[in-house]
Amino acid sequence: MSTMRIGIPRSLFFYSYLPFWQTFWSELGYEVIVSPLTNKDILDQGIAHSATDLCVPVKIFHGHVSYLINQAVVDVLFVPRMVNVGTNDTFCPKFLALPEMINCSFSTMPAMVSPRIDVRGRLQLFKLCTDLQRQWAPKKSVWGPFEKAYTAQSQYEAQLANGLSIDQAWPTFAESKYTEAKKSLSSITSELKIAVLGYPYAVYDSFINGDVLKKLSHLGVSIVTADMIPFKKRRLHRLSKDLFWHYSNMVIQAGVFWLNQSVSGLIHITNFACGPDAMVGKMLELACKQQNKPLLTLTLDEQTGQIGINTRIEAFVDMLQRRIRYAHNLPLHG
Amino acid sequence: MRGYLGGDVGSVSTNLLATDEHGTIITSLYIRTQGQPIAAIQEGLAMLQQELPHDFEVCGAGATGSGRTLAGAIVGADLVKNEITAHAVAASRLVPDVQTVLEIGGQDSKIIILRDGVVTDFAMNTVCAAGTGSFLDHQAQRLNVPIEEFGNYALKAKNPVRIAGRCTVFAESDMVHKQQLGHSLEDIIAGLCEALVRNYLNNVARGKDILPPVVFQGGVAANTGIKTAFEKALKTQVYVPEYYGVMGAWGAALLASEKMAVDNNGPSKFRGFQAAKLDYEASSFDCQGCPNQCEVISISMEGKVIARWGDRCGRWESMLGSIT
């Protein structure tokens, strides 16, 4: 029997948990096919295959699924139902309904693996993996693949916390061949430090966010993200009452954390029509106001023109540089 | 005579101006871009030259606005800057202690907060262009009122009607309905101005500390109805500068002069007024280098490519070397 091919779409949970699932499936003997970086074609296919009122990341997810079904022609599609990962919150409803949504949106579907990820701790994750192995790779053992996957994921998270970019920490995230080698995010030590916050699928999808991380580093900014804060440290900055949503809490906690670490300003990347972000945006706004730090909100939608994003980030960086110069009593302009 | 040029190329208007050595405006013009930025810039340059003394020497040129990259390539700008910085610089030159700048242009609206002459916060409209000049233009056309007269109509209103300001599509249907109920044109126009201001203050200016002095600039500042609606809502005096429509261009000129001073007043990259007569051409193609298929724009002058942009990876842009 030839090797089974499993497809993992590049959006939503992807940026947080790829190292685990890529390792796990390939150790179980599958050939893991990861859809390419988001591009115009994927966006168009996503729009064509999804309901109109969805947010762009979910549409993009549909586009990646379409690629895996129609172009890569995978045997199995991996669409987990992300519910809970051991924190006191859950994923957004669109994550909860993702397998059904995908099932309804495509007329021909390969087999779909959609485990319900509702795990508190390593033991529950192991049980879940055991179930997956029994169903999808009955001749293999779960022990080795699980150990390797778990280690890969822990290393990935530790490297992000050390300031590596996602493609340095896990090569599958790498950009296209024309992109210059990226410096590790923490290697730029500029006086101008900005926290770039948002859901991983907004911050790391360079197609839809107009390559904001690269643009900021070209402007000489040192960037910090939510992933650079070890989980336990971040959780010290919980609000008196958590929000319902997992990634929302992550963004707010990271915002409060970085505001206390003397960043010059905060950039919040949000997707148009994101319900939870209505709350997150306001909370960040209040936190910034308290510390007298400016906040820039970048709202992403289907537009591919980048001038709007460029103007906003250039103006933001300009403003922060002038603030610093003013504080040092240097000439303001030029 | 020596001086500086500033250009602000926006979606609706292209503004050019010249200042003397000290940054005082000598002459300015405001022309409609009409979807043809290159033609508008060239036309503007030619007009500007006619207005200026024959011995006018350009020591520096600055470009801003959403078409700033294009403008910079065509005229040979020494400085290309975003419009937030440009507007803030111009406003604080005019009103040194300004704390709030309200700017409403063709498709953008922004608020800039300054303290002690430094921008401390700003915001721009998000994906929606509700409450900008284009919307007013469109409604004026629909109501058959020249846009220049819009403000005067609003001031004559006795009882402004309430119009939904959250979304231009809803605003329009609300307005049609109010018309059909028999409200007067004046009351509807005033209602529209108030709706636009309400939308601006609740969206663009949400959460900002609007302190006086308040300067209101951009093309829409021509509309006294909007100015009055702002004053009513903010309960403070709103100052509209004489050159409200070209403040971005002025900021660009001021920034260019400062940049030249920092660079020890070296030669300007300005191509000269003859740029108005040169043959510029913009062409685009889809790069096939990777699945992104970026739309790459090439600008050529007299058949020679002088600028390229639009590629995410910088592959085409970097093939040119220095572009301006």
| Strand elements of chain B, count | 13
Q: What is the CATH third-level topology name of the largest domain in chain B? A: Nucleotidyltransferase, domain 5
Query: What spatial order of strands do you see in the largest sheet of chain A?
Result: 2-1-3-5
Q: What fold name goes in the CATH topology slot of the largest domain in chain A?
A: Rossmann fold
Mean pLDDT of chain B, rounded to whole units?
88
Q: Assign the CATH architecture of the largest domain in chain B.
A: 2-Layer Sandwich
CATH class of the largest domain in chain B: Alpha Beta
Characterise the protein shown here.
The complex is a heterodimer of chains A (334) and B (324). With 334 residues, chain A is of the alpha/beta class. Chain A is 47% helix and 13% strand. Chain A is built from 14 helices and ten strands. Chain A has helices spanning 14-27, 40-49, 56-71, 93-96, 98-105, 122-136, 143-161, 166-169, 200-203, 212-218, 231-235, 246-259, 275-291, 307-327; strands spanning 5-8, 31-34, 76-78, 81-84, 111-113, 116-118, 193-198, 222-224, 265-271, 295-300. In chain A, helix 1 packs antiparallel against helix 7, helix 2 (40-49) crosses helix 3 and helix 12 (246-259) runs parallel beside helix 13. The longest helix of chain A has 21 residues, at 307-327. The radius of gyration of chain A is 20 Å and the shape is globular. Chain B has three domains: 2-86 and 248-276, 2-Layer Sandwich (Nucleotidyltransferase, domain 5), CATH 3.30.420; 96-240, 2-Layer Sandwich (Nucleotidyltransferase, domain 5), CATH 3.30.420; 280-320, no CATH class. Chain B has helices spanning 37-51, 68-75, 83-94, 133-143, 150-155, 168-181, 185-202, 224-234, 247-262; strands at residues 2-9, 13-20, 25-32, 57-64, 79-80, 100-104, 109-115, 118-124, 214-217, 238-239, 280-286, 295-301, 304-309. A five-stranded mixed beta sheet of chain B has the order 3-2-1-4-5, with helices on both faces. In chain B, strand 1 and strand 2 form a beta hairpin. The longest helix of chain B has 18 residues, at 185-202.
